[in-house]
């Protein structure tokens, strides 16, 4: 026996407590099926596909925690992957914080991954983890934009909106998840940064800590609107043909 500390582990926190208002009426978004399997299960499997991930913490809709636990019990994960289910909060940020609160002490690297990005490839997950293990405190997968972006003066829905600026598209990236963090940095960000944010890396930016971008993947898109369900099912159908999966 040596006195060396046990190896630091990596966990993935999956916020899945949103309603999915933009997807339209129905079950909470994470529980909707994609080719017969709930979106959340696809997302959990995408994290568990990485050999580095030893724990998945699912943040469930507050009234749906028992149902989510049953779902996870019913769908096999790799032997090496443990999972926990905790009830979520009113905002994504609060849900992530509740997931972070459940992490055991030996977790050094934390991924935060939207349940709404069920199809992220394992190579993207591994690239994020590797960048954190190489010393980055915050890592974001991202892709170049297809559309030109205008900054506008927002008006009521349907009203013409004055354009204020056109940022150089070459310097813009659309960010995805999983975002990867040194655990201490992410915890500090969630303890100190308040206000409305839409991703975790921006909280780390507000601490003044460096955030880096690594290449994301087109299949890591977020299922947000009904058309995204069509795309997700098409991607799954293509995978079944090309990978027999
Ligand atoms: N999320 C969460 N807790 C909340 C709100 C969102 O855990 N209170 C999660 C969602 O379940 C989703 C991720 O955060 O996996 C990204 O959010 P988004 O795509 O906006 O999902 P929803 O908030 O569910 O969708 P909408 O904004 O259309 O209602
Ligand atoms: Mg939302």
What would your notes on this structure say?
- The structure is a single chain.
- The protein is an alpha/beta fold and 245 residues long.
- It has a single domain, classed as Alpha-Beta Complex (Spore Coat Polysaccharide Biosynthesis Protein SpsA, Chain A), CATH 3.90.550.
- 32% of the residues lie in helices and 22% in strands.
- Strands 1, 4, 5, 6, 7, 10, 11 and 12 form an 8-stranded mixed sheet that branches.
- Helix 5 crosses helix 6 (200-207).
- The longest helix has 18 residues, at 226-243.
- The protein starts with 8 loop residues before the first strand and ends with a helix.
- The model has no long low-confidence stretch (mean pLDDT 95).
- Pathway: Isoprenoid biosynthesis; isopentenyl diphosphate biosynthesis via DXP pathway; isopentenyl diphosphate from 1-deoxy-D-xylulose 5-phosphate: step 2/6.
- It comes from Streptomyces ficellus.
- GO terms for molecular function: 2-C-methyl-D-erythritol 4-phosphate cytidylyltransferase activity.
- The record marks 22, 29 as: Transition state stabilizer.
């Amino acid at each position: 026996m040596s006195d060396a500390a046990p190896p630091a582990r990596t966990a993935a926190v999956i916020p899945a407590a949103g309603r999915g208002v933009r997807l339209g009426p129905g079950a909470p978004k994470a529980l909707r099926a994609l080719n017969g399997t709930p979106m959340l299960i696809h997302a959990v499997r995408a994290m568990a596909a990485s050999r580095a991930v030893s724990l998945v913490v699912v943040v469930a809709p507050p009234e749906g925690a028992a149902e989510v636990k049953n779902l996870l019990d019913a769908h096999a994960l790799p032997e090496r992957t443990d999972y926990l289910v905790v009830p979520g909060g009113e905002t994504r940020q609060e849900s992530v914080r509740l997931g972070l609160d459940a992490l055991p002490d030996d977790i050094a690297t934390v991924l935060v991954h939207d349940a709404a990005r069920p199809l992220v490839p394992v190579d993207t997950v591994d690239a994020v983890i590797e960048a954190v293990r190489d010393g980055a405190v915050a890592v974001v997968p991202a892709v170049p934009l297809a559309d030109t972006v205008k900054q506008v003066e927002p008006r009521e829905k349907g009203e013409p909106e004055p354009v204020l600026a056109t940022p150089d598209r070459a310097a813009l990236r659309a960010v995805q998840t999983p975002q990867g963090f040194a655990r201490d940095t992410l915890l500090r960000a969630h303890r100190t940064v308040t206000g409305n944010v839409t991703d975790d890396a921006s909280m780390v930016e507000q601490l003044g800590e460096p955030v880096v971008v690594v290449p994301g993947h087109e299949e890591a898109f977020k299922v947000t609107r009904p058309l995204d369900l069509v795309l997700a099912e098409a991607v799954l159908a293509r995978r079944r043909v090309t990978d027999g999966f």
